[in-house]
Amino acid sequence: MVPQIRVARPPAEGRVKSQLLPRYWPRITDQELQQISGDSNSTIVPLFEKVLSASDAGRIGRLVLPKACAEAYFPPISQPEGLPLRIQDVKGKEWIFQFRFWPNNNSRMYVLEGVTPCIQSMQLQAGDTVTFSRMDPEGKLLMGFRKASNSIAMQSLKGSADPHLNALSKHLNSATGDFSWHATEKHVGKARDGSLPPSMLGPERKRSRNIGSKSKRLLIDIQDALELKLTWEEAQDMLRPPPSIKPSIVTIEDHEFEEYEEPPVFGKRSIFTARSSGEQEQWVQCDSCSKWRRLPANILLPPKWTCPDNVWDQSRCSCSAPDELSPRELEILLRLYKDFKKRKIATSHKPAQEHEPAGLDALANAATLGDNISDPSATSIATTTKHPRHRPGCSCIVCIQPPSGKGKHKPTCTCNVCMTVKRRFKTLMMRKKKRQSEREAEIAQRNQYIWGPRDDVEVDSTTKLGTSLLDPSENEARLGNELQSNVQSNNMSNNLAETGKGQIDLNCHPNGPNREEDSRPGSARVSMMSLLQVASLPLEMYLKRNGLTSLISEQQASSGSHVMPQTTGESEGQPHEDHCIAPVVEEQASGGDEELSGPDQSQNDPS
DNA sequence: ACTGTGCATGTGTTA
DNA sequence: AACACATGCACAGTG
């Protein structure tokens, strides 16, 4: 891309820059400049930028300007009333803001008033960045923005002249494939720690400063928020319902929710798998020797777990006992798990269509967010309008009480707020149902796609095998799809796999007589069965179907190797009752994760 | 009751 | 210690 503009960067007047705090230094990319300037031949002078605070992005419509920036780049004002300032946005639209100041101690506090329409037009929120530039020689002020959400950040990165950033951008793309907001956070976070020069690290830590103090301002720098969220989601992996506490069932609007009296407890992260019998089990890694051990699914593990704790398998209760899985199998399992996680995260971050908070949080969200509930980024950063310190989803007394601030609501309360919340909840549930049916249809279609190439396996396994060995990711990706479908089906049918109520005929080939019906969008019930079949396939069948027969032979050769002790002796192709490495859910067996509203439900719902 | 406005205050950052 | 700034808060205006 050859910019048609001349850019005086960075930034503007070095003289002034030295007076600005680094956090206001403009980091506008060429692409952004190009965007701002359009086809103009003018010189764009990046002036400064500011990460929007909650109050900047709030309804008040006042954007606090850094004093030094205001005094350096905006016209001098002597009266508090200031003067109207004409600023052009990236779309070429001109906005007129009141540029003024408030006396503050012996100083001034500069603000731009009336920015709400502009902020809304750009769909900005706290954590996003607004950039100010000047077009010379006209001196026209320009306003750009950079969304804190990574999708936009990615665009910025892609367009960056900085090879570092371009490389990072490519890396992010390749690393995440189908771009995952969340996955990228991790990379970005990682990059922040290491590879990026400080000047490119985005907003500094400034904004996290107030947290933890007496008057806690829950204002989290977007980067910190991302890291926190990530940590939270990682933590979610380890959260389990309290082992001895039985949830009570609460019915709200004909929907049942599990309510736990005790908060979730921490357990060790494990991978849950299902056997073809429907029995679930979990794989856990020893903290001492790092070997993976198979345990019953219903075991709550302590945060730290080692082989000697393995009282369920005496042959593997010591670190000296060999791995049950071969390295290749382990790799596949882990990659499937990783892929599943990635997809789950991506799914959970999809706007509204895929994700909805449940239970009280949903109500709280509904109460505080209204239609904004469909905007995940909004829920992650923006404060509620009700109580600036609180975030959407906050169900504290302040946020759930009526505007008048008097008293709590009873279940039978019919006040406007309660009725609105209830209506909203109904709408949400209807939407959820609708989405669920859409999702099922989608799964059915995907299923059709999945099964399609399988014919090739049957017809020409050698060719497929060659391809597979060269590019195992393809197979794994397919497995991942199945896995995802499997998880979804698991969510929807709840313990179907466990109870075997689905009456799955494992001998029924997916391409069998029912296939036509299976693949029809809308015949979700049948497709669910197919998916469950996939979920329940023995490892050998997985391997075979995906061209990894060499692994089977390797496994057989090495085992008596303990790969699958119980499977030896069974004829190939016959469904095994045990050891289906189909990571169904990584949550406890108790959970269709979207179905719960107790402490456990939040496992998949960090918001 | 709600909204807008102006100022005050508390806290983190910088010199 | 001084400064910058995010936001709390009181008060006035409006519906």
TrEMBL record:
Keyword tags: DNA-binding, Metal-binding, Nucleus, Transcription, Transcription regulation, Zinc, Zinc-finger
GO biological process: regulation of DNA-templated transcription
Record-level Gene Ontology MF annotations: DNA binding; zinc ion binding
Bias kind Polar residues: ranges: 554-571
Gene3D superfamilies: 3.30.40.100, DNA-binding pseudobarrel domain (2.40.330.10)
Transmembrane segments: none
Protein location: Nucleus
One annotated Gene Ontology cellular component of this protein: nucleus
Major localisation: nucleus
Segments forming domain CW-type: 277-327
PROSITE patterns in the cross-refs: B3, ZF_CW
Region (Disordered): 188-212, 486-523, 554-607
Protein name as it appears in the record: CW-type domain-containing protein
Provenance organism: Nyssa sinensis
